[in-house]
Amino acid sequence: MDIFSCIFFIVLFIILMLVVFSMGMLTKLIGKKEIILVIVSSFIIGSLGGMFFLHPIYESMPGIMGTFESFNSENEETLYLEVSSIKLQNLKNNLSNVEGVKSFDVTGITFNLWKLTDEEVESIDSRLGNVNENYTSWNVSNNGKVDIKIKNGSDPLKTLKSFSDWFENVYGDGITYGEVNIVVVVKSSEVQNVKDILLADNIVPIETSGPVEDTINKTQSNMLDFTEFTILSGVFGIIIVIIGIYFDNVVIFYRKVKRFVYEKINKR
Q1: Sheet containing strand 135-140, strands side by side
Q2: For residue range 124-156, what is the model confidence (pLDDT) as tens digits?
Q3: What is the CA 196 to chain-centroid distance, rounded?
Q4: CA distance linking residue 94 with residue 202, whole number of Å
Q5: What counts of helices (H) and strands (E) characterise the chain?
Q6: Disulfide check for 62: which of 111, 151, 201, 219 has CB 3.0–4.6 Å away?
Q7: Who wins on pLDDT, 12 or 89?
Q8: CA-to-CA distance for 88 and 93, rounded, in angstroms?
């Protein structure tokens, strides 16, 4: 939510509270028998005001806190991506000159095959170690998913081709692409810019971690839910109307105290 919308909603809520305050001051005219009705009305008005005017702002608090955290120039966020190998080189070129991108590392490749039998899983698993020396670990599942982790700095396209060539020799059918696992480290203040670049290429990070994301998650975990916030807003409305009810008495008491202090000072 932008700053102007926030200010607009806050002003509307203040106007509602002024109405509630006026209701409290008018109890002398409508009689004390109606005070319960006035308090109930103030709760309803406060609840509605909180629901429609304050809660949208309250929901934006995690993002606002995250924005403040991103101002720390030393903070970095880590984006985890799964991208088709066909898009890999283009993506790397797009991000290489973006301000705030600290590193771009391919950590693994995922291939999706057909549903595998236990014998096929065992066969592929036992042979992958000889396919490419840059394969550090791998996992082969019966659902046909083959996850391969590769050494840092190795050429992902060459490691993909190694698997494709081996697969074609064994099964007679090559694999033209796979899902590449990428880790991008970005300066916190530039995360949204990088996400916008990714989104333009229909890429959404599967996970984001770092100080900003931690702040957002921590803020969300400590927030009231919608019902609690609405009830609290209603209670605030009751407090305002009670202040309105006893406002004249407070003013009279203040004037008496002021006069008393003034007289004591003049007698000295």
Answers
A1: 135-140, 145-150, 101-112, 179-187, 76-84, 207-209
A2: 778 777 777 888 888 888 887 888 888 887 787
A3: 15
A4: 14
A5: 12, 6
A6: 219
A7: 12
A8: 9
Per residue in 44-96, pLDDT tens?
999 999 999 999 999 988 888 887 777 776 788 899 998 887 888 888 888 88
Q: Higher-confidence residue: 254 or 109? A: 109
Measure the CA–CA gap between 48 and 233, rounded to whole angstroms: 8
Tokens standing for 131? 């396919």
Rounded CA gap, 33 and 154, in Å?
82
DSSP letter string, 210-258: SHHHHHHHHHHHTS--HHHHHHHHHHHHHHHHHHHHTHHHHHHHHHHHH
- In angstroms, the CA 50 to CA 53 distance is 5
Q: Return all residues near 119 (Cβ < 8 A) that are at least 6 apart.
A: none
What whole-number percentage of the chain has pLDDT above 70? 95
Going by C-alpha positions, the residue among 186, 213, 181, 180 that lies closest to residue 103 is 186
Q: Which residue in the block uniquely carries the two structure tokens 């810019």?
A: 193
pLDDT at 253: 75
Parallel, antiparallel, or unpaired: how do β-strands 207-209 and 76-84 relate? antiparallel
pTM: predicted TM-score of the whole model, two decimal places: 0.68
As a whole number of angstroms, the distance between CA 43 and CA 17 comes to 11
